[in-house]
Every structure is written in structure tokens, then in C-alpha cells.
Amino acid sequence: MENKKALVFTFWIVAIILGVVLFKQFDFENLKFEKPALAIIYIAVFIFAVYFLVKNSKKN
């Protein structure tokens, strides 16, 4: 049970950090990312982290 809580906490931290990074890298004037290739990786991991958190919250 403790291991599962640590995993959920880790995914929360990852999701928050990636969300902030994606927000900072996005150029709202041109509607583009500063580094598009890196943004794709960030988005993929962010979506996975959010999916894991939603999936885990439905179990509880």
C-alpha cells in the first residue's frame, strides 16, 4: 500500500512539473512551442502521468 502511495505522489510531481514546463515553453503570440521535438516528448509523458492518476483515482 505504501508503494502505491509513493507511485501516485511521484506521478503527481511529474505531471505538475511537465505542465509548468509546457506552459512556459508555449509561445502564445505565435501559438507554437519553442522546442517542438522536446514538447512532443513532454506532452506524451504528461498525458501518461495524467492517465495513470485518473485510472488510479477511479479505483479508490
**Low-pLDDT ranges:** none
Helix content: over 70%
Number of domains: 1
Q: Report the biggest beta sheet as strand number plus sense, adding barrel if it closes.
A: 2 strands, antiparallel
Protein name: ATP synthase F0 sector subunit C
Transmembrane segments: 7-25, 37-54
Keywords: Membrane, Transmembrane, Transmembrane helix
Question: Can you describe this structure in just a few lines?
Answer:
The protein has 60 residues and is mainly α.
What does this structure look like?
The chain is mainly alpha-helical and 60 residues long. The protein has one domain. The protein has two helices and two strands, in the order H-E-E-H. It has helices spanning 2-25, 36-59, and strands spanning 26-27, 32-33. It has a two-stranded antiparallel sheet with strand order 1-2. Helix 1 packs antiparallel against helix 2. The protein starts with a helix and ends with a helix. The model has no long low-confidence stretch (mean pLDDT 92).
Question: Which short descriptors sum up this protein?
Answer:
single chain; two-stranded antiparallel sheet; 80% helix
List the helices and strands and how they pair.
Elements (H helix, E strand, L loop, with lengths): L1 H24 E2 L4 E2 L2 H24 L1
Helix pairs in contact: 1-2
Keywords: Membrane, Transmembrane, Transmembrane helix
Protein name: ATP synthase F0 sector subunit C
